[in-house]
């Protein structure tokens, strides 16, 4: 079984959304995905893309994995890359596609002079944590992710403003 | 003592960098800030700004706090806002400027149809965690922040690519 890595294109949007949904199920949030293929196309492949992608493609054209990333800004370091999703479909794990996508992201960041690559990982996903740490990345213990979701944002606005 | 909230401008860049540095000291990373006033001006106030800011300004024109934020993209929800820094200078805490900046960010996100506001918080900063949770935000226990820093990125590239 062999595969190659390339930039994602509009034609991959449906496969990318399939992988996003599969990842949400793995992360125990099966109902969290509300975006559509049309949203992905508009947001990622239009005139002002909000993200970029790489895909892992088998020789027959099947998309088996993807990495989705965009720029952030560190007030300490300057421009950085955030890896939002990195996902290989369950039946295609163990053939090196995940590491190949990870390397492609790191190479992109290095070649384009980004000062950091960041992402988020679930602490019970110990295989992933171990993999990341073995590559030289740091998984921080003290930093917590905080979010105001859409519903609570609306409540906050109505109560406070 | 009274203050007002407004959008940050080029003339505020030096004060903003002062607050960034003060925040880094508070976060026990005093040497982490490598960006300069010139970087901030170029990156935040040029033709394609990488971030936006709000500042809290006293009546005499002194900048006592700032919030720095930018867009991210959720593969579940679509476009989101990330609040990178929210900081009030130590001598001006307790007068409501932090909450005023926080409300301004939430209002900006709500008015512009963003689907989430995210940020990161140190778990030992219990005052901040409590404040955020009281506003309806969630501080996640399972999600960890992971980063590949510049030096380790270079090592990874040299060893793997």
What do these coordinates show?
The structure is a homodimer of 161-residue chains. With 161 residues, the first copy, chain A, is an alpha+beta fold. Chain A has a single domain (3-160), classed as Aminopeptidase (3-Layer(aba) Sandwich). Chain A contains five helices and six strands, in the order βααβββαβαβα. Chain A has helices at 13-26, 37-44, 97-111, 126-134, 150-160; strands at 3-7, 52-58, 63-74, 78-88, 116-122, 138-149. In chain A, strands 1-2-3-4-5 form a five-stranded mixed beta sheet, with helices on both faces. The longest helix of chain A is centred in the middle third of the chain and has 15 residues, at 97-111. Chain A is globular, with a radius of gyration of 17 Å. The model of chain A has no long low-confidence stretch (mean pLDDT 96). Chains A and B meet through helix 1, strand 3, strand 4, helix 3 and strand 5 of A and helix 1, strand 3, strand 4, helix 3 and strand 5 of B. Strand 6 (138-149) of chain A pairs antiparallel with strand 6 (138-149) of chain B.
Helix share, percent of chain A: 25-40%
Q: How many domains in all of chain A? A: 1
> For the largest interface in this structure, which chains are involved and how many residues does each contribute?
A-B, 67 and 67 residues
Instruction: State the fourth-level CATH superfamily of chain A.
Output: Gcn5-related N-acetyltransferase (GNAT)
| Uncertain parts of chain A | none
Which CATH top level class of chain A fits?
Alpha Beta
CATH architecture of chain A: 3-Layer(aba) Sandwich
- CATH topology name of chain A, in short, is Aminopeptidase
Question: How many helix segments of chain A?
Answer: 5
Overall, the morphology of chain A is globular
With strands numbered from the N-terminus, the spatial order across the biggest sheet of chain A is 1-2-3-4-5
End-to-end Cα distance of chain A, whole Å, is 57 Å
Number of strands of chain A: 6
